[in-house]
Design a protein that fits this description.
By secondary structure, the chain is α/β, with parallel strands linked by helices. It has helices spanning 2-6, 44-61, 90-93, 100-116, 125-134, 162-168, 186-196, 231-239, 255-262, 275-279, 291-303, 305-319, 324-339; strands spanning 12-17, 32-36, 66-69, 82-85, 119-122, 142-144, 173-177, 203-207, 223-227, 243-246, 267-270, 284-286, 351-355. The chain is globular and about 65 Å long.
């Protein structure tokens, strides 16, 4: 949103947000009008009902030319041209990330929204292939617009909270993000780490929610799990790690990898899904279903300091291929292309609505 607001363009945006994000866009310029909706993001039933039955009427009230839904689902029936961004096909491919009912609802609404949208965008060529397979869309009807590298890709130091500062100052560590979802593959990473733990001085810091999951019973003294972190704390953990490891079995884009690279961290990750495309030979790759391979690749990244330094250099270089400014420019072109379909283009200033979850 900030990148769209910074473009030298006459397009204005109406951004619909939940109560949780009501203060997020307070500092942006007058190109952005924020409308706060009366529900919280976790209230999925209220959010879906608002999106299907209220948002189309608000599109008319705000004289919207293009309606862009940024996260999988959008209005199935809309009075204005629509664009929907579907990041991956996880509701079909990944069974562990959500309940069966939630998967079914997400799949059906997302599928119908994609079929009725004027344009579908996704974030990687891997995801486009998945959408062609599972959503039965034509490849030419899906535009690939990659995302940017986190919110602060400069790599500058920030001030971590005292608790996290103590954690990351306690010696070298490997960082990982994933929590307890099975497709994040933390169980194999923990097993691989335990195989090498006696040969390296590094701790393993796992970010995400694992309390109450089977992983919680397999932790050793050198494995630390601080849970969810603030944005600043997360960036400091990534920036100061000696290696970031992503053993995921399925990723439509790979935000954690790209954000870690933008912050200068060397990366080892799965030779799977979108991660090969995202890293573009800038990371050490392993077979995520082979614990011995995870162990060997991770250990090399730690013990071979020349290789570690080279990975760090390649991380920064790869991250420059992605930017929110570039993403915003491509989305603006998409808005203009779709917006030309409506008669209102001739009569009033071009506006776009963005619906955020």
């Amino acid at each position: 949103i900030a990148a769209l607001a910074s473009l030298n363009s006459e397009i204005k945006y109406v951004v619909f947000v939940s109560l949780d994000a009501k203060d997020t866009f307070a500092q942006l310029n007058d190109k952005i009008e924020v409308v706060v909706c009366p529900f919280h993001a976790r209230s999925r039933a209220a959010r879906y009902c608002w999106e299907q039955f209220v948002l189309p009427w608000q599109a008319i009230a705000y004289r919207i030319d293009v309606l862009h839904s940024l996260a999988y689902v959008g209005p199935i029936l809309s009075p204005v041209p629509t664009l929907v961004t579907i990041h991956d096909a996880n509701s079909k491919v990944v069974s562990s990330s959500m309940s069966r009912i939630r998967r079914a609802v997400l799949w059906n609404v997302s599928h119908l929204a994609a079929k009725t949208a004027d344009l579908v965008t996704t974030v990687s060529h891997f995801s486009r292939r998945d959408l062609v397979q599972w959503y039965k869309l034509r490849q030419e009807d899906i535009a690939v617009i990659p995302s940017g590298p986190g919110t602060h890709p400069s790599g500058q130091e920030c001030s971590a909270s005292p608790e996290i500062e103590k954690l990351i100052s306690g010696g070298p560590y490997i960082a990982a993000i994933g929590g307890g979802y099975a497709h994040k593959n933390m169980a194999r990473l923990i097993e691989a780490y335990q195989k090498m733990a006696d040969r390296i001085e590094h701790r393993l810091i796992i970010l995400g929610y694992i309390a109450g999951t089977p992983l919680n019973g397999n932790l050793s003294e050198k494995i630390q799990c601080p849970g969810y972190l603030t944005r600043t704390d997360l960036q400091e953990v990534l920036r100061r790690c000696d290696l970031f490891v992503m053993p995921s079995l399925y990723e439509g884009f790979g935000f954690p990898v790209l954000e870690a690279q933008a912050l200068g961290a060397p990366v080892a990750c799965s030779r799977r899904a979108s991660l090969i495309e995202l890293t573009n030979q800038s990371a050490a790759l392993f077979d995520p279903e082979n614990v011995d391979d995870i162990t060997a690749v991770t250990e090399r990244c730690i013990l071979d300091r020349t290789f570690n330094s080279e990975l760090r250099r390649m991380s920064k270089e790869n991250a420059t291929r992605f930017s929110w400014a570039r993403s915003a420019q491509e989305y603006e072109l998409a808005y203009r292309s779709i917006g030309q379909k409506v008669d209102s283009w001739l009569h009033h200033g071009f506006r776009c609505i963005l619906r955020l979850t």
